[in-house]
């Protein structure tokens, strides 16, 4: 039976398109894993209904917004287009057409625990996507994909249930798969600038795009190619079209589907914070950034502190002249752009959507007893260079030796060998060597699954198996090579605590 996921998110002229766009990315990734996804969205001016339906996802439409009194508790209450009570009841009605979703995902600044508590009986679990940390949530999982300072893990303290899982940081940034694909083949950016990309999101109500075009016009760089992208609902399109024809080499695009390619082709970008910042970072695109909303400022500031963007500040405090000055500096500073590119690329790797999917499906990750037919696959995993380099014995193992070892472990009464399964896909192996009440666990994954969050999920699934089938085991132990940071992180996420440090020294002969 497939995972069922309902998503409550809106787009509008006022709030822009970012909430729906990142949810579409997650929805597409979930569908790739066999999930059934539906959107619940209000019919705001500037909605993205056509795009949602063109993506092949079911859409349940909530009525057009009505004038409502602002909820003094929520800074963005007016964005909902109804009271929380009205919206919750309308969503309840919609969800009854999509019985018993496993997950309800909420991405909306105008929704808090009041709404979520009303919907909780209709969904197995609730996930919230947020970056404001300005209201309480009744959720099981929270995603904040923004880069945070040292307070990132604590900024939601007191706002979530104690049991809620927090996914914090751009390692969970929801990027479409083409960004990771292009990252793998991306050229090294030298800092030379021949093509500039300008993009300020789907709405751009303050017309930052026009501001940047005026700045570029003042520079009179006739040999500079300029790609300008605006959303389909951009209210300034006629003005921008008129301005673009005055710039040699300027191309104006509306609601494109090849943003990753445009970013890969560009040498410099001028744009907003938010989701597009993580897309640019994934491809190492040097950026002059302007925040167009208050929630973008912390992320932009954190990126600037890491030397990953050149941040000019909030839109209302940045003039076309200041943009022009920044452009003059970077266009003659290739070393600066090269450093910005390297720093940006180190922040985001493009696998965030897969990591979030793994959290949503981890309850469906299964383990089974290994069988003789698994021997060859486990052999390939074990001998992979990126796997064995973290083993205490990292030498290649011969096939015959592995086959004998595998058969012995299958037959041993004091050993449990389990294979992790994500649907029909084998993703890794767990081994428990049992001595009375203590089991020593070892784990390794299919090398193609490294870095995607499977490790902690597989450990959790194995623990459940042990509780059912080996109830006398009361303690788990593991030994991890100190350099294996990913494995240590997986054990910590699975609830293990570091208790012993082991030191070693190789003595020279003679």
What can you tell me about this protein's structure?
By secondary structure, this protein is α/β, with parallel strands linked by helices. The protein has 18 helices and 18 strands. It has helices spanning 18-32, 49-54, 84-95, 113-119, 177-184, 208-219, 237-244, 259-265, 275-282, 297-305, 320-331, 334-345, 352-361, 375-383, 385-388, 399-411, 454-469, 485-493, and strands at residues 4-9, 36-42, 58-62, 103-107, 125-129, 141-144, 165-168, 195-199, 225-230, 250-254, 268-271, 287-291, 310-314, 366-369, 415-422, 425-435, 438-445, 475-477. A seven-stranded parallel β-sheet has the order 3-2-1-4-5-6-7, with helices on both faces. A six-stranded parallel β-sheet has the order 10-9-8-11-12-13, with helices on both faces. The N and C termini lie far apart (65 Å). The mean pLDDT is 91.
In short:
The protein is an alpha/beta fold and 510 residues long. Helices cover 35% and strands 20% of the residues.
In terms of structural class, how would the helical and strand content be classed? Answer: alpha/beta
Return the CATH architecture of the largest domain.
3-Layer(aba) Sandwich
Report the major sheet: 7 strands, parallel
* Residue-averaged pLDDT: 91
Strand order of the largest sheet: 3-2-1-4-5-6-7
Indicate how many domains the architecture comprises: 3
Query: Which range best describes the helical content: under 10%, 10-25%, 25-40%, 40-55%, 55-70% or over 70%?
Result: 25-40%
**What distance lies between the first and last C-alpha atoms, to the nearest angstrom?**
65 Å
Number of strands: 18
Beta content comes to 15-25%
């Amino acid at each position: 039976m497939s995972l069922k996921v309902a998503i409550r998110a809106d787009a509008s002229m006022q709030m822009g398109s970012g909430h729906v766009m990142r949810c579409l990315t997650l929805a597409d990734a979930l569908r790739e894993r066999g999930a059934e996804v539906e959107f619940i969205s209000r019919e705001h001016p500037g909605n993205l209904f056509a795009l949602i339906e063109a993506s092949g996802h079911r859409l349940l439409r909530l009525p057009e917004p009505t004038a409502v009194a602002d909820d003094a508790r929520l800074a963005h209450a007016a964005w909902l287009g109804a009271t929380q009570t009205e919206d919750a009841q309308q969503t309840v009605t919609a969800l009854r057409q999509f019985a018993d979703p496993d997950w309800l995902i909420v991405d909306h600044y105008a929704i808090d625990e009041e709404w979520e508590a009303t919907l909780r009986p209709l969904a197995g679990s609730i996930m919230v996507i947020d970056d404001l940390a300005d209201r309480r949530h009744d959720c099981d999982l929270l995603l904040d994909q923004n880069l945070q300072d040292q307070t990132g893990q604590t900024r939601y303290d007191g706002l979530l249930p104690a049991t809620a899982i927090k996914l914090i940081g751009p390692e969970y940034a929801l990027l479409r798969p083409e960004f990771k694909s292009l990252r793998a083949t991306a050229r090294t950016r030298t800092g030379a600038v021949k093509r500039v990309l300008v993009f300020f999101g789907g709405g751009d109500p303050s017309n930052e795009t026009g501001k940047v075009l005026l700045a570029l016009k003042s520079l009179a760089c006739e040999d500079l190619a300029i790609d300008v992208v605006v959303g389909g609902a951009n209210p300034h399109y006629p003005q921008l079209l008129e301005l673009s024809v005055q710039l040699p080499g300027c191309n104006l695009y509306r609601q494109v589907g090849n943003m990753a390619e445009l970013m890969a082709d560009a040498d410099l970008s001028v744009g907003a914070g938010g989701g597009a910042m993580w897309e640019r970072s994934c491809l190492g695109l040097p950026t002059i950034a302007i925040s167009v909303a208050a929630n973008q400022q912390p992320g932009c500031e954190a990126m600037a502190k890491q030397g990953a963007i050149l941040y000019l500040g909030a839109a209302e405090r940045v003039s076309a002249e200041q943009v022009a000055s920044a452009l003059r500096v970077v266009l003659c500073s290739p070393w600066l752009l090269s450093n910005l590119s390297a720093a940006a690329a180190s922040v985001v790797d493009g696998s965030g959507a897969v990591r979030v999917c793994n959290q949503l499906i981890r309850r469906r990750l299964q383990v089974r007893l290994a069988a003789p037919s698994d021997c060859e696959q486990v052999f390939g995993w074990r001998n992979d260079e990126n796997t064995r380099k973290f083993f205490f014995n990292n030498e290649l193992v011969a096939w015959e030796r592995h086959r004998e070892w595998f058969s012995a472990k299958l037959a041993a009464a004091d050993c449990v060998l389990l294979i992790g399964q994500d649907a029909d896909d084998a993703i890794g192996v767990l081994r428990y060597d049992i001595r009375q009440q203590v089991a020593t666990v070892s784990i390794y994954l299919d090398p193609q699954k490294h870095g995607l969050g499977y490790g902690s999920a597989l450990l959790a699934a194995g623990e459940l198996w042990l509780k059912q089938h080996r109830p006398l085991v009361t303690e788990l132990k593991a030994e991890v090579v100190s350099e294996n940071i990913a494995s240590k992180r997986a054990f910590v996420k699975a609830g293990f605590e570091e208790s012993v440090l082991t030191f070693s020294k190789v003595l020279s002969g003679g």
